[in-house]
Design the sequence.
């Protein structure tokens, strides 16, 4: 059962065990995988994410102060909206409180308990699932009906502005707007999106390597992209983003740059083109074409964006060797999950081959999940 009911039961039990009363609101939000289009959203380009049927659950009730517990950190934490960030998981929740206060969509206080089937650091957007679910739960307590767009925007600002992750808007948008059986073709430059049919099963193979988005390579890559854009605007003054650079101008643009900016720009521009091809492939239900694009995307992410890891590269290579349509590291990179698209009749054999190849090198068997495209954030009022 991966529809959030087990996580909801755990969250309610945690809430009751902490405060000896029941929550009044239950909200849940899915994790997501990005089929293709990595590191393109904050560069103004298109992406193709899918919400998955593993969810983060936030249960809450009104209170005089803001108090938080999580099944991963069950010690009760009390914080005020006026506080700065503290490098604690509650920063994500407190950021949402601060953003909702700007919309008059937050209660004076609340008790919040969190449980999740989305692993932190796995490249499945556990942080966005938490912030989106929190925004929906708290606005329901405040009796303010926020649109999915408002929920996504508040969750994005909480993570980007308060926590300090220089993320794009993809994760929050797909988690707020997703529908089962579809991928979301989202243009981060314009904010527009359309749903594309996608009901194929996906496999996730865990590299066992975890990342943190608040430091290191992620923010560095974004800074490199911004530096490259500034340089290219000397020739194209009206260029709104790296993703807006036409593929036909790529060679000219690369001649204006030095390493590592050459590789960063090459990834963004070619990945943008791949997303367009991938949307067309899904509309035509050509999953083999989609898979080849995924392999190409992983190579670009590993070689040009330098955001992969040895474990992921090994798994992607094994997936290709054993007959997968496609495979790639999903999420920001430097660890997390490898996404595998394969014929359903042979998926078990392919994943087993990947596990065997991985075990031969690393001495352990990576865990695997089967997921499908699921719906977005939802909430119920129980009191």
Sequence:
């Amino acid at each position: 059962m991966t529809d959030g009911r087990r996580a909801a039961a755990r969250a309610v039990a945690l809430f009751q065990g902490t405060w000896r009363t029941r929550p009044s609101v239950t909200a849940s939000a899915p994790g997501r995988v990005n089929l293709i289009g990595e590191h393109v959203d904050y560069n103004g380009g298109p992406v193709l994410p899918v919400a998955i049927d593993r969810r983060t659950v936030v249960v809450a009730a009104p209170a005089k102060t803001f108090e938080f517990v999580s099944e991963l950190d069950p010690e009760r934490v009390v914080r005020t909206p006026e506080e700065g960030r503290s490098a604690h998981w509650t920063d994500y929740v407190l950021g949402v409180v601060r953003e909702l206060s700007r919309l008059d969509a937050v209660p004076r206080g609340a008790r919040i308990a969190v449980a999740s089937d989305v692993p932190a650091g796995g490249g499945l957007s556990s942080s966005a699932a938490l912030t989106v679910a929190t925004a929906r739960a708290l606005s329901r307590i405040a009796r303010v009906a926020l649109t999915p767009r408002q929920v996504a925007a508040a969750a994005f600002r909480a993570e980007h502005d308060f926590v300090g992750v220089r993320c794009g808007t993809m994760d929050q948008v797909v988690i707020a707007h997703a529908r089962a059986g579809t991928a979301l073709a989202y243009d981060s430059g314009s904010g527009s999106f359309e749903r594309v049919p996608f009901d194929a099963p996906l496999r996730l193979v865990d590299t066992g390597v975890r990342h943190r988005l608040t430091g290191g390579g992620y923010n560095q890559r974004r800074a490199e992209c911004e530096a490259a854009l500034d340089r290219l605007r000397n020739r194209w003054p009206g260029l709104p983003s790296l993703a807006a650079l036409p593929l036909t101008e790529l060679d000219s643009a690369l001649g204006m740059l030095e390493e590592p900016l050459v590789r960063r720009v090459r990834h963004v521009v070619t990945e943008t083109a791949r997303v367009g091809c991938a949307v067309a492939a899904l509309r035509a239900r050509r999953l083999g074409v989609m898979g080849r694009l995924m392999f190409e995307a992983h190579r670009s992410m590993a070689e040009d964006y330098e955001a992969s890891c040895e474990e992921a590269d090994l798994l992607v290579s094994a997936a290709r060797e054993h007959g997968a349509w496609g495979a790639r590291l999903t999420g920001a990179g430097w660890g997390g999950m490898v996404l595998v698209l394969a014929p359903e009749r042979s998926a078990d054999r392919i994943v087993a081959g990947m596990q065997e190849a991985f075990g031969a090198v690393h001495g352990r068997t990576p865990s695997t999940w089967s997921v499908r495209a699921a719906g977005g954030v939802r909430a119920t009022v129980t009191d």
User: Anything to note?
Assistant: The chain has two domains: 5-198, 203-371. The chain has a mean pLDDT of 95.
